[in-house]
Structure formats: structure tokens, C-alpha cells
Amino acid sequence: MTDARYLIGIDLGTTNCVMSSTALNEEDARASIDIEAIAQITDSAVQSESASLPSFVYRALDQERESGCTRMPWQDANAALCAGKYARERAGEVPDRVVASAKSWLCHSGIDRRSALLPVGGEPSERVSPVDATVALLEHLRQAWDVEHPDAPFQKQQIFLTVPASFDPSARQLVEEAAFLADYPDVALLEEPQAAFYAWLHAHADTWRDQLSVGDKVLVVDIGGGTTDFSLIQVQEHEGQLSLERIAVGTHLLLGGDNLDLALAYLAKGKLEEQGHSVDDWQMQSLVHRCRTAKEQFLGENPPETLDITIAGRGSSLIASTLSTTLTRSEVEALLVDGFFPLVGTEERSSSEKRLGMQQVGLPYAQDARVSCQLAKFLSMTGESDAGGMENFVMPTALLFNGGTMRAPALRRRIEEQINSWAGTLGAAPVTILDGADYDAAVSRGATYSGLARRGDAMRIRAGTSRSYFIGVEDAVPAVPGMPPPLKAVCVVPFGMEEGSEARLDQEFALVLGQLATFRFFSHGTATLSDGTEPAMGSVVSRWQHELTELHPIETQLDRGSDDGSTVRVTLHSNVSDVGTLELWCQAQDGRRWKLEFDLRHHDPKSAGATASGG
Prior knowledge:
Elements: E1 6-12, E2 16-23, E3 34-35, E4 38-43, E5 46-50, E6 53-54, E7 56-59, H1 62-67, E8 81-83, H2 85-91, E9 98-100, H3 102-106, H4 130-148, E10 158-163, H5 169-181, E11 187-191, H6 192-203, H7 208-211, E12 217-223, E13 228-238, E14 241-249, H8 257-274, H9 281-298, E15 306-312, E16 322-328, H10 329-340, H11 371-379, E17 398-402, H12 409-426, E18 432-433, H13 442-454, E19 461-462, E20 468-474, E21 487-493, E22 501-512, E23 516-519, E24 521-524, E25 540-541, H14 544-547, E26 549-550, E27 554-557, E28 567-576, E29 582-588, E30 593-598, E31 610-614
Parallel strand pairs: 1-10, 10-11, 12-17, 14-19, 17-18
Antiparallel strand pairs: 1-2, 2-3, 2-6, 4-5, 7-8, 7-9, 12-13, 13-14, 15-16, 20-21, 20-24, 21-25, 22-28, 23-27, 24-26, 28-29, 29-30, 30-31
């Protein structure tokens, strides 16, 4: 935007949202980046400002809505949704009216993410969709900005919005859709680990070249409330100058602070049941919210030796009863530090188990909650495969922590201990800890700083797509009874394909027209496959079950002309937009084109998660 006065970076966090900005009259890499104060309801009818907006959305009770005690001055008189601190506090009292972890639900491909299903267990008429909950958070941020900056409307600024590095195309574009519905201008998406590293570069603009050398590999361990992201950024030399390139991204892991909260809640529940109490689903939700606070205290600076956990009873007595139990520091550390971050060898891998055919509605959390094993799998550079040995293991030389969960000194110490243990096994030097991490605001600050990098005012990290993407192609072979036609995966977007670039595959394929057809898509999270080859446009993976992760399919019917048969011969053209979204075009010899795209702003509600269009 040529008339923009500010670059605005937004960390759309699972637990907290943070917004920062810098004025565009700042011209160098030492530009000041300010954290924006966000006005919100903090108690019934009480409004104040905070450096963050808790990512909780509360549907107010009728009497609260009528009195206006949960409504900001800028909201409509009929507004029922309240975002922020008060919503977080109400989560411990009326959990069936509060939506938490909306961002994690956005990447759940097993549900209709535009369907009103949150909070799970709430009254159907009172629920909202993951997209709508995200819209409520983004709207609040936009409106809070406009109140503070009446002379610089939000819609006229340059907006950078962060997403987990492992978000697939449909999840990324649902974030883009939510921003559109929240009345945002066009946004640029940035991966959270990259944003954290940008923040470190900003904080060390004058010294980072003295701390890192050519060949260094920086491991960003980003563990937030709902997700764990691993990224590797390598220091390289380009035309005599140091340059930075993101070389690997981990798979999407719904594993983070929420899992630790749940583990503590089960510990507390077991103790209450030993006392003879029964804990129902409603109380369990309340227990999770209470244990979130306890976790932060036990894993923070100067932790207490004991803490009492108290929730409301569910008896018929006119006098409200309570249930209470005590957690100790030793048992909490044993559960959270040793349980989630055990010391393991380089050969360890996260385990995968077959899921049951019938499951409760909920988030698809990582099946193996051992973060250290997930990290070992990532550093083994074997992509999605569980196979691999020490010969592929990549040792980082530097370590940068990010995410709210990493505020805990005990967890940071354990990860450092784990990586140095691997270094000792492999004969490598101990890892260097990059200091000065800002666990609360780094992602937001880094998003803003990335805007300066795009303008050429700061060092830019070469990244492109965080994964390579493949389309499933059915082999044309004779049918065999009892066996489905063989499927191979053809690469249509290589790893690291730059934003704003296009690629073409001249090989022809047969595109099915005029009938309902399914298009299957796959991804891979590192620059190389397990055999050491680098997927290029048109590369074929036959054993995709062992190498790739399958994404949500597109099921659609493409238009057929009056002179067409059941199929038409097409070539494939892929495009990565300037904001990091993906498009795949199928082009016929006569110039007609059909676009296969993951969910965008205009959609068919009956679509199975993606759309297709012709042109």
C-alpha cells in the first residue's frame, strides 16, 4: 500500500494474540518496533489495556449482553462474543461457553471448519465455528488499533499475519479468509519460527554477524499453547555476504502447552477421584483451565512447593460446593519435564499408532507427546518416514527458543541438555544458545521486522514454501480384481519455491470432466527425500505412503464443454502468490484452464475442504 504509514505485525497465537508496529518513516534495520496496547474487557463491565489479547472467545449470557458488561464501546449493541482476558477468566467458570485454541481447530482437516461446533459440549445454538472465533479475535485487534490510531486506519496499513510453519495450504487460506471477514486489507502470511528469528535479528542488528558464521544451522524450537514447530535456518555466503536460508520445517504437531495443561488436569482428577469425588466432563473442562495457571506457576521463576486446585462442585445443594486437591512441585516436574521431554538417543523416533475408527469430536493431537522424540525425528531429516539413522542426523550449532511454553526455564534447560547429549554422541560441539528471546512478543515483532526486510531495509531470510507438494496421479494399467489402481505422487511445488513465482510441468495428464472426481494431495517437510534426492517439478514418488503426508482432498466436478469427452489432456502450472498461498492450474491445449485451489474467500459450503474453478 503506497499510502500506508505503518507496518503492523500480528501474532495470532493459540493462547495469546500480540500486535506490534513500526512507522514507515524509519529507514534502517534499527527501526523501533512498538508493542500495541490492546483495550479489552478484563472483568464484568471493566475495561483496560494489555500488551496481549488472550485467544479466548466467550459467548455472553443473555443478562450480560443486555447490560453491556461484556461489550467494548466500539461493538454493536447486540454483540454476543467477548474476546480477551474476561473470556479467559470465564473459561474456568462456564467452560461450555468459551472457545479456546481456535487456531488449532483451523488446521483440523477432519471437520468442516466453517461449521458451528465450538465449544465442544456447548449448546448447539450457542456454538461458533473455528473461522468465526478467529474472525472475532482479528476484528478485536483491528478495532483496538483504530481507536488508538484514528489518523491511521487499520485498513490502510501493511499487515503481516503469522501462522505455524507447518500449516497446510487449506489452513493458511482459512486464516486469510478470516482476515478478509474481519475487514482486513490484503495480508501477507509469515511462518512463526521465521518471525521469531527475524525478531532476534532485529534485536541484534549490529552484532548477529559476529555471533553466526557460514555453515551455522540455527534450530528454532517454537512451542506455544497448541502447536510445536521446528525450523532450521542455515547461514550461507552469497556474493561475499552472509545470507540466511530456511532449509527445513517440521511436520504439523498439535502438541504444546495445552497438552501440559491436560496432563495436569488428569493428575488432579485422579487425586479428586481418590478422595471419593466424581469429576464430570463440565468439571474436567474447568479443571483444565485451573491447571493452566498452576502450570505457569510451577514452571516459572521461583516455583511454589505446592498449589491447591479448586473447582466448583455439581451437587444439588443450594450452597455452592467446591472440590479441592493439592499438586506438588516434584510430581508436576516429573510429569511435565520427564514425561514430555525425556532424554532419548539420536535413534529414537516419535511413534505412530493406528487411530480407532470411532473417536470423540476433538483436536487431532500428536499421538506421541514426547517432544524430544519428535525433535529427534525432525533432525534425522527423514521427512515423514519413521525410518532413518544417525547418518542423516543434522546437528544444529545454535538454538533459539520461542513460544509461551518455552518461558519455562526447566523446559529450556532440558531441551539444551538433550541437544548437547546428541552432540556428544556425534562428536559435535555443544550448541550455542541465542540469548535475548522474547517469548511473549517475538513473533509479533518479527512479523513487523519482516516487512522492513521485504522493503530491502533489513536482512531477509530466503524461504519460499515450507514444504514440497504433490498431486496424486492414477496409473493407466489394466484392472486387477481386489486391487485399487496404483497411485503415484507427482511434485507440483518443490520445497522452497519462492513467493510470486510460477512453475510449469510440460508432461500431459488426463483431467476428468463432467463428473464428481477426487483430487488427492500430499506434502513433504524437508528439502530432500529419505534417499537424498531433492523433489523437483515433475518428480515422482511411487512409495508415497512411506515418504509423504496426505492432505485434505478436493472433491469436485469440473465443467465439460459440448465437444469434450470424459477427459481432456492438460499440463500443470503451479503458482505461489506473494502472500504464500498456492494455486494449481490445469491447462488444455486450446487455452482453457481449470484451477484447483484450497479454501479461499469464495467457497461452496458443501465442498470437502477445497474448491475448483474453470476459466
